[in-house]
Amino acid sequence: MEKLPKAAVFTLIGLVILAIVIIKSSVVIESGQAGVLFKTLNDGVDRENTYGEGFHIIAPWNDMIIYPVRQLSVSDKMRVLSVNGLEVTVDGTVWYQPEYDKLPYLHQEKGREYESQILAPAISAAARSVVGRYTPEQLYSSKRDVIQNEILDEVQKELSTQYIQVNRVLVEDVTLPPKIKSAIERKLEQEQEALEYEFRLARATKEAQRQKIDAEGKAVANKILSASLTDKILTEKGIEATLKLAESPNSKVIVVGGGESGGLPIILGNQ
Known about the structure:
Elements: H1 6-25, E1 26-29, E2 33-39, E3 44-45, E4 54-57, E5 63-68, E6 72-81, E7 87-98, H2 103-109, H3 114-131, H4 136-141, H5 144-158, E8 164-175, H6 178-228, H7 231-246, E9 253-255, E10 266-268
Antiparallel strand pairs: 1-4, 2-3, 2-5, 6-7, 7-8, 9-10
Helix pairs in contact: 3-5
Protein name: Regulator of protease activity HflC (Stomatin/prohibitin superfamily)
Membrane topology: Single-pass membrane protein
GO molecular function: peptidase activity
């Protein structure tokens, strides 16, 4: 077998080295990611630039550290104390993401483990601070939305200089000790029954008032009607009724001015 010429060997070696350099120098940053460049032979982290999605060529002795920069979430169950010292469990989720323009600072000052080193302690401290302002009853019944917003405010303040953006906090569940939960449920049930009783009582009172007003109105109407029915009016009404009866074919005899009807006509002989 013939030996390769020295020029061919050097060319082959050069191509291999070039391929290695190209592979080492080529960086592809995927969608939803960003990169931080570490310059090994220079000043370390490039704090001035955040490298976005796409293909990048870097010096083979440098390194590109890639971070996810789309919105992320972390869920946890935290045991915290209420205002009266009772332990409750808060089950929540936090949505967050690194600040894109500050990613080099985040990498240099906090590192790749920033979620466990910075974010988680801030969430835990905020939850303890906020939940500690409320009683178990408030936590169980009506304060969940308020708690979410207050925890969000606390976390955002804590991380405002940490290059982490917190977008939302969701409190999914608040678990109380079984005895406390049962006591609160009984109290809420009793309050609901009391409200229902008050509603029925108020409705009955209004109905009684309506009936009283209706009866008083009828009494006034009857009083006015009785006062207006004089003897003369009654006599005229009786004459009108008698005339209508006289027109009937069944009427036989009409006696005018008889009986005890105050002089009203009397009809006899009806069949």
